[in-house]
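User: I've been trying to design a sequence by hand for this structure and keep getting stuck. Would you show me what you'd pick, starting by listing the structure so we're on the same page?

Assistant: Good idea, let's start from the same input. This is the structure you sent:
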């Protein structure tokens, strides 16, 4: 299936899903304090999801060759890049960073977002990694104008990350989004400005830079889901669902 452009009516529906995503992430972020387990974070996400009248996009999600995903939320601590599974055994500690990732369907349309949160006071290098990854996402969003090119986004992320001595994960990408959580096109976090698909109004994408303090390589743990940095360096992940409109980017998973 090719790229499906969305009408303004469809984008308005995705915005409704995006508001639920934002409310969930706000509630979960507020609970990211020392002593909270990632299992408790998932329970909070479930409650806010229910209140929002939406359905999880993660529970039972099953790409080829993987076990079905077992939770509404991904919680990825420290060297975990993405797709960490919430667990009673994983208790947040002062100084940790935790990626929280959530997507849901409302009125048949999906929205997807993530952020990485500091637990209590974190080290200066950890703080800088979070700030840089957040800024990389903002710079990529600023590239979402009609007439721009898809690789402008990757070039913006890669340029910032590498200028600060970090590396960009290559094995995982952002994605088109709409009636399905994952649609074409793939949205890479590296590339050459001026290349790739021409951006047009109606294109809706989930942009999700994953930036490592060390080397770019990642591997999957034995649970079949959790992706960690191969060198066990810290990693951060921020994501928004963004619509390209005549008047520029609209962040559908904002407040
Ligand atoms: N938000 C992630 C993504 O864009 C999470 C999907 S993994 C899941 O791919 F299994 F939890 F759904
Ligand atoms: Co995503």
């Amino acid at each position: 299936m090719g790229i499906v452009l969305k009408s303004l009516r469809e984008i308005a529906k995705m915005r409704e899903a995006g508001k639920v995503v934002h409310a969930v992430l706000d509630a979960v972020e507020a609970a990211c304090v020392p002593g909270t387990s990632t299992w408790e974070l998932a329970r909070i996400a479930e409650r806010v999801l229910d209140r929002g009248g939406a359905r999880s996009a993660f529970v039972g999600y099953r790409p080829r060759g993987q076990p079905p995903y077992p939770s509404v939320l991904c919680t990825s601590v420290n060297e975990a890049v993405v797709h960490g599974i919430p667990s009673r055994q994983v208790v947040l500690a002062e100084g940790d960073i935790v990626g929280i990732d959530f997507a849901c369907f409302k009125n048949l349309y999906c929205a997807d977002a993530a952020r990485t949160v500091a637990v209590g006071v974190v080290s200066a290098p950890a703080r800088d990694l979070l700030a840089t990854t957040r800024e990389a996402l903002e710079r990529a969003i600023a590239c979402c104008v009609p007439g721009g090119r898809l690789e402008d986004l990757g070039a913006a992320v890669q340029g910032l990350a590498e200028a600060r001595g970090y590396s960009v994960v290559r094995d995982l990408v952002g994605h088109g989004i709409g009636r399905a959580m994952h649609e074409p096109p793939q949205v890479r976090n590296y590339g050459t400005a001026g290349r790739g698909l021409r951006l047009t109004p109606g294109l809706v994408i989930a942009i999700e830079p994953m930036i490592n303090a060390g080397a770019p390589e990642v591997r999957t743990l034995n649970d079949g889901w959790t992706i960690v940095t191969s060198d066990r360096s810290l990693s951060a992940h921020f994501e928004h669902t963004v619509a390209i409109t005549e008047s520029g980017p609209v962040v559908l998973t904002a407040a």
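That's my pick for every position. To get oriented when you compare it with your attempt: The chain has four helices and 15 strands. The first strand starts at residue 55 and ends at 56.
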